[in-house]
C-alpha cells in the first residue's frame, strides 16, 4: 500500500566529495550507496556499493541499513533501522548528510541570500522577488514545491537537482538560473522532446509569475515566494 506524502523530504550533503549538493527524496524507497544504480550515488570509497535505503512508512521516513555492518550512522550512533526526524545527521563512510522533512525549516542558503556582492553596481528589477519556486505534482498525485537555488538543473539523470523519472526527458534537459537582477531564466539544453513554457517551445526565456513549464509529462508552475 502507498501512503500519500504530505510534505517533501530531502538530504543536503554537508561533508564529503559532494558537499553542498541537495538531493530530493520523492520515491517510497530511495537507495543510497557507491553503486551508480543507487538512487543517491555517493562518490566515497568508504561507502558500500549498497549502503542503505530511506523508506516512506505510515510513521514517516525511515533509514534502513542494507549492509548489516553497523556503519550507517544517525546522530552519531550506528543503526540498522531508524525513523528519521527533521535535522537528523546521517553519516555513510566519510559523507555526512542532513535530513530535512519540512520545507519551512531549510537552514541553508536560499537564492534570496546569494552573494550580495554580485548585485553591487547592478540595477535590480524592483518587481522581481529574489526567491522563486516551482510547484508541481509528483507521479502519485502528491503536491510538491521546490524552492529555486541560484542554479537548478532538471533532467532524467539522478545527478540533476530536479530528477524526473520520464523517458521523454533528457538526462540534462534544462537549467533555471537566477540572474543578477533577481529574475529567473530557463534554458533548454537541446533536449530531444523540448521544453514548453505556457504551451510554446523555448530554448531560452525569462520566467514570469504563473508560467507553466512542461518537461516531458511533468508540468511545473513558476511562482515567487
What does this structure look like?
- There is one protein chain.
- It is built from no helices and 22 strands.
- The protein has 225 residues and is mainly beta.
- The strands form four sheets. It has a six-stranded antiparallel β-sheet, with no helix packed on it. A six-stranded antiparallel β-sheet has the order 13-12-22-21-18-19, with no helix packed on it.
- Strand 1 (9-15) and strand 2 form a beta hairpin.
Rounded to the nearest angstrom, the radius of gyration is: 18 Å
Shape: elongated
Secondary-structure element series: EEEEEEEEEEEEEEEEEEEEEE
Number of strands: 22
Helix/strand structural class: mainly beta
The mean pLDDT is 79
Task: Tell me the β content.
Answer: 35-45%
Largest sheet: 6 strands, antiparallel
What is the topological layout?
Blueprint: E1 9-15, E2 22-25, E3 29-33, E4 40-41, E5 52-57, E6 60-65, E7 72-74, E8 77-78, E9 81-83, E10 89-92, E11 95-100, E12 132-137, E13 143-147, E14 151-155, E15 162-163, E16 174-178, E17 184-188, E18 195-197, E19 200-202, E20 204-206, E21 212-215, E22 218-224
Parallel strand pairs: 3-4, 14-15
Antiparallel strand pairs: 1-2, 1-11, 3-5, 5-6, 6-9, 7-8, 7-10, 10-11, 12-13, 12-22, 14-16, 16-17, 17-20, 18-19, 18-21, 21-22
